Amino acid sequence: MLSQQLVRRFATSALRRSGNPEVGAKPGHNLPFTLGNRYKLTVYFILYFGSAFATPFLVVRHQLLK
After folding, report:
1. SS3 of 2, please?
2. Model's pTM, two decimal places?
3. How far apart are CA 64 and CA 66, in angstroms?
4. I need a surface site. Which of 24, 25, 32, 62 has the fewest CB within 10 A?
5. How many Å apart are CA 53 and CA 21, to the nearest integer?
6. Closest by alpha carbon to 32, among 41, 22, 23?
7. Can you tell me which residues the record assigns to a coiled coil (predicted)?
């Protein structure tokens, strides 16, 4: 119990001392894409994960046609 309190105090004080103004900002502010437009985000996710899923199939097709 005491060790948990010490860890919590240290973590809190370390965050305060860090001088980082972004601590406590909105979730997702440090991502390389915006979360505001959900349709655009959905398209990005489909393209990203769809391309990762399709790549092995395209590679096999290319090798078979060679």
Report:
1. helix
2. 0.51
3. 6
4. 32
5. 39
6. 41
7. none
Contact between residue 18 and residue 10 where contact means Cβ atoms under 8 Å apart: no
What is the rounded CA–CA span in Å between residue 37 and residue 2?
45
Q: Cβ(33)–Cβ(44) under 8 Å?
A: yes
Query: One digit per residue, pLDDT tens: the chain, 66 residues?
Result: 667 776 666 666 655 555 556 665 677 777 888 888 899 999 999 999 999 999 999 999 999 999
For 13, the domain range is 1-65
Number of domains in the chain: 1
40 CB-near residues (< 8 Å, 6+ apart): 34
* Alpha-carbon span 13 to 46, nearest angstrom: 41
